[in-house]
Each structure stands twice: as C-alpha cells, then as structure tokens.
Design a protein that fits this description.
By secondary structure, the protein is mostly helical. The protein has one domain. It is built from 13 helices and no strands. Helix 1 packs across helix 4. The longest helix has 33 residues. The radius of gyration is 19 Å and the shape is globular. About 3% of the residues have low confidence.
C-alpha cells in the first residue's frame, strides 16, 4: 500500500511539474497572441474575472473556510500588485515586446523578492551565494535591456521593454506583502479573491484609459480568442491547481524549478511559433539570468512551503 501511494504521488508530481513547466512557460506567447486584437487591460481583466468567478465557485463547493474582512482586504491588495501591477503591465508591454524577452525579464522576480525581503524591517539577509546570484542576475538584466536603452529602433519600444522589469518588481512587492499579511487560510479562496480583485481593477483601468473605444469585437481574431480561453482555463486555473498541489506535497526546491524552466520554454515557443529572433546578446543574457535564479532558488533563501503560495507564483500567469 505504501509503495503504491509513493508511486501515485510520484506520477502526480511529474504531471504537476510538467503542467507548470509547459503551461506557465507558454502563457507569455498566449498573452502575445491575445493582445494582437484585444486591448491588453480589457483582455487581462476579462481573463482574471472569469477565472476568479470559477475559482470562487470551486472554493465554495469545496467548503473552504470563509475569510474575514481583513483577509478579504489583504487578498485583494495582493491581487492588485500581482495581477494589475504584474500581469497587467506584461500584457500591455507584449503589444510590442517579444514574448521571449518578457519571459526572460520576468524570470528575475526571485531577485526582486530577495532584495525586498532583505530591505523590509527584520528582513532576511542574503547569504554570500544568494548575493552572488543577485549580482549576476542584475548583470543579466542589464545585458538584456541594454540594446533597447542605447538603440531604440525597430518594433520593440523602449517604454514597453522597461515596463516588464517594473512588472516583476510589483509582483515581488505583492509576494512579500502576502507573506507578511493575514491571508485566507484556504489557498483556493485566496487565489479566487486575488483574481476577482485584479480582474475588476484591470477592467476599470482599461475603461479609464479608453480601451473600449479601440475594441472592435468584429476584428478580434480567432487566435486572440483561443489564446484568451487558453489563459483562463490553463494558465489561471489548471496551472495554479498544479502549483498549489506541488507546494503542499513536494519540496520547495523542486517546486521552484519552474523559475528557470519557464523562460526556456517561453523562448523556444516564441522562436518556433511567433518567428521571434534570438540574438547572441539575448542568449548570453538568458544563460546569465537562469544561472542567477538557480543560485538563488537552490540556496534555501526563499520562504518555506508553509508560507503563502503567492510568494513563488510567476507574474505571467
């Protein structure tokens, strides 16, 4: 019986890992396709509002513990940082920025999380290995964005490029906030509230900046619709379900490997399906950044799995 249980858990672990490796690595390309004919904030708002409603209904069906008003507030604030500041800015940036560039820059989120965790009162001081990872990672970011800083030509706009690391920083702020706040005891309920709050806020932002005037339903392409459906069902629901299962059933070191697998998957898909060009500079930056993330995530510096799951979830999802 024990060996059968271990075998089943092993299979479930493989399935869950493959799910977050492939699905979360592919969401960058799905976002790129969806914003081709759907305004970015309206797209992201619709995605998370629909996913949030489904997740909230599922949490109620599972009889998840009802959150207090304080927990509602904290989960909503977390959702604003993660989904508006993180995902919303990525969706806006990918109107011109390649999905591979977005994936590589967003993969630096553990770097910003570690720096913020260190800067807060009574924060955790990084070890020598983590400090080396931070420095190497920042160098990788510099290598990646330097060409756009000094030669702003072509289809990629400097403003959109710079928004991506800002999105990673805001995601890190939300992650650190969630770890230090009174959050819903049920991860499913917490995720649902974050999606609902983020989805509503994204739709409000899209309305305020006039995205509805640029939205032509008749001109929405089939690829954009399919990409949006994919983001709702797989990126927002299936991916988070697999991720939460891994947090509760495997080690943090194993779960956090998505941080350096997702960029590789995203770059591969962008090159194959969207004809994105991978320059020698981008390849060098990718190697440097992934190496830095490996140093940080394998050092034991990141929070234990008993802490809030939002602390590790990537911003593109």
């Amino acid at each position: 019986m024990a060996s059968g249980t271990r075998s089943k858990n092993g299979l479930n672990t493989v399935i869950a890992l493959v799910t977050i490796y492939i699905i979360w690595g592919s969401t960058y390309l799905a976002i790129r396709f969806s914003v081709e004919t759907i305004p970015p904030f309206l797209m992201a708002g619709a995605r998370f509002l629909v996913a949030g409603i489904i997740a909230f209904a599922a949490a109620l069906f599972m009889k998840s513990a009802k959150p207090t008003m304080r927990q509602w507030r904290n989960a909503a604030i977390t959702g604003l940082f993660l989904l508006v500041g993180g995902n919303g800015l990525i969706s806006f940036a990918e109107q011109s920025a390649p999905s591979s560039l977005a994936a590589l820059l967003i993969s630096t989120t553990p770097i910003w999380m570690t720096l913020l965790d260190w800067a807060r009162p009574n924060g955790k001081r990084p070890t020598l290995v983590v400090s080396a990872g931070l420095l190497i990672g920042l160098i990788g970011v510099g290598i990646l964005i330097a060409p756009d800083l000094f030669k702003n030509t072509g289809s990629v706009k400097l403003f959109e490029t710079l928004l991506i690391p800002v999105a990673a920083v805001l995601w890190a702020v939300g992650s650190v906030f969630s770890r230090q706040s009174d959050m819903p005891s049920s991860p499913a309920m917490g995720t649902a509230i974050e999606m609902l709050a983020g989805g509503v806020a994204l739709l409000i932002i899209g309305t305020l900046i006039g995205e509805w005037s640029h939205f032509q339903p008749a001109q929405v392409s089939q690829s954009s619709i399919l990409a949006l459906v994919y983001l709702i069902i797989f990126g927002s629901l299936a991916g988070y379900t697999a991720y939460i299962w891994l947090l509760n059933n495997t080690s943090l070191a194993l779960t956090s490997t998505y941080a350096y697998v997702n960029p590789v998957v995203a770059v591969f898909l962008g090159v194959v399906f969207d004809n994105e060009r991978l320059t020698p500079t981008a390849i060098t930056a990718a190697i440097v950044i992934v190496f830095a993330i490996v140093l940080i995530t394998s050092s034991g510096h990141l929070p234990s799995r008993t802490q809030k799951s939002e602390a590790l979830a990537p911003a593109e999802n």
